Amino acid sequence: xxxxxxxxxxxxxxxxxxxxxPAGYDGANSSAAEPVAVAAAEPSASVEAEAxxxxxxxxxxxxxxxxxxxxxxxxxxxxxxxxxxxxxxGWILYRFDKDTADPPSSNxxxxxxxxxxxxxxxxxxxxxxxxxxxxSSVTRQDGTRQLTIAGxxxxxxxxxxxxxxxxxxxxxxxxxxxQPDGKKNxxxxxxxxxxxxxxxxxxxxxxxxxxxYSY
Length: 215
Fold this sequence. Notes:
With about 220 residues, the chain is mainly beta. The chain has one helix and twelve strands; from the N terminus they run E-E-E-E-E-E-E-H-E-E-E-E-E. The strands form four sheets. Strands 1-2-8-3-4 form a five-stranded mixed beta sheet, with no helix packed on it. A three-stranded antiparallel beta sheet has the order 9-10-11, with no helix packed on it. The longest helix has 5 residues, at about 110-115.
């Protein structure tokens, strides 16, 4: 048992990728390498951090009952993209250039977080192929705790329609597939900068550009 060091639609993003994209642009992971070294992390005290340049958020004792938690981080290699991190269901995870890693801080809130759902945790994720000393969490503005890798908060992308896709790669020039060491994966980039998908219709807007949504 390894203890965590810190707690730290349709898409306009579907631009043509270079030849590095999987057949049918589905991010197929059929040739993915097997993950290694499963380790369960135990919860410890969280590190409070600013979110969206606002006042410090209170530390959450436990996540709300309706919050979906990311129960596992899996580091592995997939065809063409190379090193990635997925959740327990195989969804590719991303990092955001407008966040900070030192100190860890998430600046993706409100509409942004509807398009890029944060990987939330109760402080006890299982780890496979990701070193426990790289994984921590940060307290978000709403009091939930978000997983970080090497200090970088990590997210899913609602433009990915099934596990293994990476349509969020280079969206807005600020979102990138995250590697197990927390660095950006730059091995498979689109030929032009993709735009993000719009927030869900029930969020009150369905037009990314018209709403001023720019992340």
